Predict the 3D structure of the following.
Amino acid sequence: MVAVAPPSFRRERALIKRGVWPVAGCDEAGRGPLAGPVVAAAVVLDPKRIPRGIDDSKRLTPERREELFEEICTTASFAVVFASPARIDRDNILRASLWALARAVHALPEMPKHVFVDGRDRLDTPCDCDAVIGGDGLVLSIAAASIIAKVSRDRLMCKLAQDCPGYGFESHKGYAVPEHLEALHRLGPSLHHRRFFAPVVAARERHQAMTIETEIVAMETPINVEISAGI
């Protein structure tokens, strides 16, 4: 097994030494799911109070993510923005994600002087921005943002599971796992699903066809009515 080095604060510290501060990290959670929003977070870590163990959220257990979420919220500046399924349907998932990431930067208590964002796309922000491919595993501020975004989204999906029971949002968080696909096939899409993702389109078309067929059968079924005339 190859050991994977944890993300570091090296890039942020280099900027701080040059007098560039605040420095933020940005990441999102939820590009791939069939349901729920995409959630973006921006985080400015306090160099003197960085929680130990921050890593790419995908490398952490749910329990450890929750612990670090609380520690980051206590010691750092952060902002979270949700891009709804309606926005994803209207703009597409990439544009909705970039919108949410940029909005998260603007929502920070103080506009940063520099931003690191996970991925290949720079953000539309008034400050300098570096896009870092695989940044959540390289840049500590991005890793912190990945934790904030992931936990915020997971908590929301558990709430949506109560609003729309039967889909299993609380377990798969909207991703296209067999359990979710079976529920889509059985129940059809909910208002929290992304209308133009292929499995959702297929489920909607199937249920529309079933509805039409049911209506046709109802129209063709003879109705026997007995009429009693009183004399």
